[in-house]
Amino acid sequence: MRRYLMLIPLTVIPLVVYLIVAFLAPAGADGSARIWDDIALNMTMLSGGKFTLLWEHVLLSFSLIFLFVEILKSTRQSVGEIYDHMLSMIVFIIYLVLFITVARCSHAVFFILMLISLIDVVAGFLVSMVAGRRSLQVERDTGL
Questions:
Q1: 3-state SS record for 71-136
Q2: What are the phi and psi torsion angles at 128 (to 5°)?
Q3: Which residues neighbour 94 within 8 Å (Cβ) at sequence distance 6 or greater?
Q4: Mapped to the 3 state alphabet, what secondary structure does 49-86 carry?
Q5: Mean pLDDT by 10 residues, the chain (144 residues)
Q6: Structurally, how many domains does the chain consist of?
Q7: CA–CA separation, 131 vs 70, rounded Å?
Q8: Residue 54 pairs with which residues in a beta bridge?
Q9: Cα(62)–Cα(65) distance, rounded to whole angstroms?
Q10: 9: CB partners within 8 A, 6+ apart
């Protein structure tokens, strides 16, 4: 069971969170969820400057952490890595279709999440190709 959970692209988590919030939160005049512009954290720094963190920044920060983990996952070499790449591509396609067709998904936050998903797809394929090339080089050099 754990092995199958490792195949699920983590970039689907921000997608699900965005969709839940976008359709449950009250909509603005343009049809987008207004909650993304609300303040999550407001602090005064020692320098006297104001640090303001919006909910969109929180979601994007967690998405970048998920992207980092996805890139780490793409460095492993196993049969499941092909399924992981396919599922990552499907998640990106879902992002793209929703961005184009759903009004509540035509938001800058959703666009950046879609770019994070695209980077996951491209980086996953590139890391796999480089790792595969190195594996071939090692086998050639050792005569295996």
A1: HHHCCCCCCHHHHHHHHHHHHHHHHHHHHHHCHHHCCHHHHHHHHHHHHHHHHHHHHHHHHHHHHH
A2: -65, -40
A3: 15
A4: CEEEEEHHHHHHHHHHHHHHHHHHHCCCCCCHHHHHHH
A5: 74 94 77 77 93 94 94 77 87 96 89 96 85 59 58
A6: 1
A7: 15
A8: 39
A9: 5
A10: 70, 84, 87, 88, 91, 117, 120
Q: What is the pLDDT of residue 30?
A: 65
Task: Please give the pLDDT value at position 33.
Answer: 65
pLDDT at 29: 65
Residues in the chain, overall count: 144
**What pLDDT score does 63 carry?**
96
pTM here is 0.81
Tell me the residue range of the domain where 59 lies: 2-142
